[in-house]
Amino acid sequence: MKLSALTEGVRFALVQGSLDTDITDIIYDSRRAAPGVLFVCIVGTQRDSHDYAADCAAKGAAALVIQHDIDLTGLDGVTVLKVENSRLALALMSGNLFGNPSRRMTMVGVTGTKGKTTTAHMIRSVLEAAGRKVGMIGTNGVSYLGRHEETANTTPESYELQKIFRTFLDAGCDTVVMEVSSQGLMMDRVGGVRYDVGVFTNLSPDHIGPGEHASFEEYRSWKGQLFRRCGVGVVNIDDPNTDALLEGHTCRLVSYGMHHAADYRASGCELLRTHDFLGVTFRVREPDGREMDVRVNMPGEFSVYNALAALAVGKVLGAPDAAIHDGLARCVVKGRVELVPISKRFTILLDYAHNEVSTESLLTTLRAYRPHRLVVVFGCGGNRSKLRRYGMGEICAKMADFSILTEDNNRFEKVEDILAD
């Protein structure tokens, strides 16, 4: 592809060379340098890849995108473009490289502190029940039409993301449901993507610390960016942070909740339990006054909120009531209060809860089912905020009958130090 076509929609200054240059691929990792590629130099939290520009050029890179000035000595014959934001440029050029596939599918983005994965799965289940062919991206990886692949990030880097969109489109998908993390928004991984529907689940302090967000206000602000790049925002009106998060939004809003005047409001929640089943039923009142009974095969109040979000998205996208009802009733999510059937004498659940808020929400939910004994096995990741460790430890000490501490991806820290915290 010609560099001129690749840079369509990108604001840049031509430092040297020609836009008529042929480009074979885009890279942002200097280790993938090869003849004909365009190397996008990114200022990272640990390294500045501008330092590797000359090395990439020596290996045959046809063009460079830089964010700050570099030494051009020895770069004769290499086209150099300068941009204000190389991450955004990478996203826009990656979209152009793969033919901007997201523009040819219905796009649904889900953001929030808790519930993104479960809500995304519920939305997919509803839309598939309505006959749509859905590709999904999130914490549990990439899945589409019976296929599954793992991913490194909840929201992949923009090049990989656009490549995934292209794969979805070529496979016949007409809809994408994806988790949109605050990091994904802040680092422009979703740059250039316009969502038909954006979903907000809830917000609480998380991902605040070195390499993440400087403050809760910054974290909230980046979450809110989704509602400046979507057509319809489906939002949890009960969350106390909703108004602040939506400041500056440009989308039409559809609300859901249990305790306020929501467009889609749940009531009459009833917990269901057997030795191999935990779930909940409730009734939803719609904007026109009609009511729908809903059953979800996942426990607790948070499952009601997740299901309400999925129901509202289904309504916005024209899913029939039967598809919404069936899609929610049969949805099960790996690692999200996932029931493991082993014995009639006890119930085992797997859950991704990894901070104080999600752990408290989970244990509060399980306590509502009146278990004879509640045992929690948990660990905390290394090289992450120590506040998570203190919070999870306090919550488990207060709410569990017995706690077992174990290893959970210690990264570069000693397991003993993590457990001591």
UniProtKB/TrEMBL annotation:
It is found in: Cytoplasm. Pathway: Cell wall biogenesis; peptidoglycan biosynthesis. Its EC number is 6.3.2.13. SUPFAM superfamilies: MurD-like peptide ligases, catalytic domain, MurD-like peptide ligases, peptide-binding domain, MurE/MurF N-terminal domain. This is UDP-N-acetylmuramoyl-L-alanyl-D-glutamate--2, 6-diaminopimelate ligase. It holds the Pfam family Mur_ligase_M. Residues 335-420 form the Mur ligase C-terminal domain. The keyword Cell wall biogenesis/degradation applies. Residues 110-313 form the Mur ligase central domain. Belongs to the MurCDEF family. MurE subfamily. One of its GO terms (cellular component) is cytoplasm. One of its GO terms (molecular function) is tetrahydrofolylpolyglutamate synthase activity. The keyword ATP-binding applies. Keywords: ATP-binding, Cell cycle, Cell division, Cell shape, Cell wall biogenesis/degradation, Cytoplasm, Ligase, Nucleotide-binding, Peptidoglycan synthesis. One of its GO terms (biological process) is peptidoglycan biosynthetic process. PANTHER family: MUR LIGASE FAMILY MEMBER, UDP-N-ACETYLMURAMOYL-L-ALANYL-D-GLUTAMATE--2,6-DIAMINOPIMELATE LIGASE MURE HOMOLOG, CHLOROPLASTIC.
